[in-house]
Every structure is written in structure tokens, then in C-alpha cells.
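Sat 14:20. Reprocessing the chain from the morning session after the first attempt stalled halfway. Input below, unchanged.
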Amino acid sequence: MNLSEINISELLPHRPPFLMVDKVISIDDERVSAQFFIKESSIFNDNGRFAEAGLIEHAAQTCSCIVGKSFYDNKSTVKLIGFISAIKKVTIYSLPKINTTITSQASLISRFDADDYSLCNIECAISQDDKELVSCNLNLIIREI
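Finished this time. C-alpha cells:
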């Protein structure tokens, strides 16, 4: 897959101002790395810092790219929607400043595909300038609409 040709709107159903992934750095069937530039206008701007809820949403959207990729690979025109079904574990070490870039790395732990939805468990770590900000384990449901 040519990363320069990835249209993030085909991997994720989110749209601004709720889109929390700008760029996919690398992706395969089990792993993804993504970036997000935190703008001052972000809905999760909390006194110059990116709030906890924004970090969790960025992690979930990064994780969703793995499942979204399988639909993208199949050249499907199906629209997707995703839900966090469980936050199994989250540790937030630090909140990044606004007008900076965060990078996330996610790995698929398990995935179950049914006719029109996927259930998955994914681990994610978010960092900035080689400093870990967040580690988490999420369960997601991705389904066709």
C-alpha cells in the first residue's frame, strides 16, 4: 500500500473537528503508526494542553485504521462506523501541549470478523519527542453502515 495515497477519510469515518489522525506513517494487517498535529482550535484543548479524552480518542482512531485498512484493501465503498466498546487499561503519563505533533503505535491483539462488523482488541502507545505520553488497551467495534 502506498502511504502517500491513503485517504484517511476512507480508513476512518470521523471528520473535522473530531478527526484525530492526520497521517498514517506505516500500516499493515496487525500494526499501524500514525501522527496528529494538535491545533489550538482542537475541541480537546484544555488550557493549552490536549486533554485526556483527546488522547484516548486519538488512540482509538489510530487503532481503527488497522481494521479500516482491510475494507480499503478490498476497494469496498462501504461506510464504516466505530465504537470503543471497552477501555481495558489506560495510563496517561503526560498531556501534550497544543500546536505540537503526537505519534501513536498500535498493535492488533485479537480480531473477530462477523458479516457486517469486526470486534478487536488493540494496544496503543502515544509518544511525543520519544517520550511516552499514553499506553492503553482498547476493545473496538467497527461496523458497516
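The chain has two helices and eight strands.
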